[in-house]
Design goal:
With 286 residues, the chain is α/β, with parallel strands linked by helices. 28% of the residues lie in helices and 22% in strands. A hairpin with a 5-residue loop joins strand 4 and strand 5. The two termini are 21 Å apart.
């Protein structure tokens, strides 16, 4: 077990079961960034959850944060993302910088990662085609063996707000279902702020709620982050609630692989994210 992963968090950041969907939800002030970084660490670190040097590859698609953000966060955990990219174990797709650029290209040479993939077509078909291209590029290792490819989608719900009717809840759900057929498992982060999900009235609120509810029903488990109900605290960043979905719930807490979550169970925990990126997860009263 890695010292970089708090013991109470460890069961939930293992490489997810095959064909599973893991949903992470956030609100303003309680971001899922630190959770995604722990999934990356477990999947890509030699001391993490990967069983071999070339056993697992990761495609990270972020619609809210650029590569420099993820590179810096991963470096604090001991992960060198540019080096992993050179070894064809990691791909970053930038869905933020040039998504509405009218250029006809889809890649640009940026930073240390080399030919960084940049999305420039804000449609479900365009996004899906680019992701599948990168998944296929990582699926076969240098030794010719097939890899497990973990797909992480960070805030794809941005497309609902930014593209009007071009990408709605139905198209987004269909895109995710198609992608699941080509990857080992998929992790999706979505905003769950009250104005977007409670008593939806506008088209955006309706579409967002529909997407969130659909993903929650399809998920093996849901990790929801929120702020303390009583306000802010100096040594507590927020509350992490784990809810098992239809694919992951059996109520026995038994450690399993490829058919459920390893040693995971429903619970509510507190967490604290330090200024250096370190994370503490603990139960109430500790």
């Amino acid at each position: 077990m890695s010292i970089r992963i708090p013991p109470l968090l460890e069961p939930y950041t293992h490489l997810p079961p095959r064909d599973s969907l893991i949903l992470l939800t956030s609100i303003l002030g309680a971001s899922t960034n630190w959770l995604i970084l722990r999934f990356l660490y477990n999947a890509l670190s030699p001391s993490g959850d990967s069983t071999g040097e070339a056993d697992t590859a990761v495609v990270l698609v972020s619609f809210m944060r650029d590569f420099e953000f993820w590179k810096d966060g991963a470096r604090r955990l001991g992960l060198d993302l540019p080096r992993l990219a050179q070894k064809s174990r990691f791909r970053f797709i930038d869905g933020l910088s040039d998504l509405f650029d009218s250029g006809d290209g889809v890649t640009s040479n940026r930073g240390e990662i080399g030919s960084q993939i940049t999305l420039r077509e804000p449609t479900s078909s365009g996004v899906g085609a680019m992701i599948l291209q990168q998944v296929k590029a990582l699926k076969i290792g240098r030794d010719g063996e097939e890899r497990n490819v973990l797909l992480i989608l960070d805030q794809p719900d941005l497309l609902l707000a930014a593209t009007e009717d071009e990408v709605g809840a139905v198209r987004m759900t269909s895109l995710l279902m198609d992608l699941r057929e080509h990857v080992y498992s998929i992790i999706v982060t979505v905003a769950a702020d009250s104005p977007l999900t409670q008593s939806p009235t506008t088209p955006l609120e309706t579409q967002h709620t529909a997407l969130l509810v659909t993903l929650a029903h399809q998920a093996s488990y849901v990790i929801s982050l929120r702020l303390l109900d009583t306000g802010t605290a100096r040594d507590i960043s927020g509350v992490m609630r784990v809810t098992m979905g239809p694919e992951g719930a059996d109520g026995d807490g038994v450690e399993r692989r490829d058919g459920g979550i390893t040693g995971a169970e429903e619970k509510e925990l507190l967490y604290f994210v330090g200024g250096d990126g370190g994370v503490k997860v603990f139960e109430r009263g500790q």
